[in-house]
Each structure stands twice: as structure tokens, then as C-alpha cells.
Amino acid sequence: MRAVRIYFKRCIAASFTVEAALIMTVTLPVLLSVLYYGFFLHDKGVLNGAAQQIAAQADLNSWKKSGSNRLAKQAKKLTKTTGPSRKVSSSVSASQSKASVIYKGTITLPGLLPSLFGKKKLSTGASANRTILYPADLIRKIRGLEYVSALLKK
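The structure assignment produced for this chain is given below.
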């Protein structure tokens, strides 16, 4: 009877090992894909924030001749803030009426994850376009409207 119990315990222990091996082959790629999708969304958010920030700074620097160069330098600095994205590049173009910022980068997926996503690399990047406002002109218009509304109230 004791020999039957020992044999039965070994069979149960072996079945747990097989079940764990089968379950882990499914759960580990799913967990890793969720983790890498989080990295992807993080980098996309960081690049979007950087693009919006550089485009907003174009309002302050656009009237200077060196403003476009300064924006390009700031855009290069912000490419270093991304996480696992590689080959992050930036391009900035600013004219008197419009500013445009584009970031591009890629995340390389390791192991079996390309078979889940269907790609070996995910492209991260963002772009921002902004119409340049000249603060002095806007302030003059607002103060003019305040003056006219004050006259109309009297």
C-alpha cells in the first residue's frame, strides 16, 4: 500500500510540473507583451510631451533669427529622455506663422514578442504643429477690447 502512495505522489508532482510548464509558456509572453506595451505608451507620451513643449516655445523664439536653431538644440536634448526607444530623431521647422516638430524612434522587441505583435520593431514618435502667436499683438488686442468694453459700459 505504501508503494502505491509513493507512486501516486510522484505522478501528481509530475503532472503539476507539466501543467506549470504549459501555463508558463502562455502567461510569460502575455506578461512581457503587456510590459513592452507599457514601455511603448510611455515613450510615445514622453515624445508627444516633448513635441508639444518645443512647439509651444516657438512662440517665444520665433521672432529671433537664432530661434529655430535654439529650438532644434532643445529638441535634441529632449530625445535623451525616452526609455527603451532607440534611434530617436527630431526635426524642427519654424516659420513666421507656423512651427512643426516631429520625433521618430523605434522599440525593438525581444524573443517571442514579435510573433505576438506581428512586428520586430514598434515605431514610437509624435508630431506637433502650432500656429505661432505673437504675445505682444495678442495683449494689445485684449487691452483694446477691454478699453472698448469699458467705454460701452459707461
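Interim note for the steering committee: The longest strand covers residues 98-108. DSSP finds four helices and three strands in the chain.
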